[in-house]
Amino acid sequence: MTTDTIVVGAHTRTANTVLSTAARFAARLSAQLVVVQVDDSRVPADPDDASGRGATVPLDPDEYDDDAVDRSALEATAARLRTDVQITVDVRVLAGDPAKALARVAADTHAVMIVVGSSNGPAAGLKAALHGSTASFLMHHQPVPVLVVPVSKAWP
Fold this sequence. Notes:
The chain is α/β, with parallel strands linked by helices. Among the domains are: 36-71 and 79-96, no CATH class; 109-122 and 137-156, no CATH class. The chain is built from five helices and seven strands; from the N terminus they run βαβββαβαβααβ. Helix 1 links the parallel strand 1 and strand 2 (32-39). The longest helix has 15 residues, at 15-29. The protein starts with a strand and ends in a 7-residue tail after the last strand.
């Protein structure tokens, strides 16, 4: 018997709320969780690599993002979920477009659901208007359910 997989997009500012929600669903569905954090300031050297272990290159070598991916913090959160919720958690840190990276991982893992956080903050509306939101892209291009977690308020 194979275990179902839920793919969850983790962003530094929304990770706790989104991961906690995804973990609760994974526990209820007896599914494993694949946590994906995407650094959109970098691109994969091999665009077909969804493993999270391949080389990446910066889009702009002069740009510094203080909100960059912190794999150690993500691994610590995953370890807490493994213990507290007692689920299998895999962590992948990728580069490139978050929506496309999540879609690729969902396809590669045959995910039954994708969980992402809603956009928030003062620039979220402008970014979504100019580039589209990750959630919107996934909802329109994925064959599996996409759960969008509101991050401005905690869900019980």
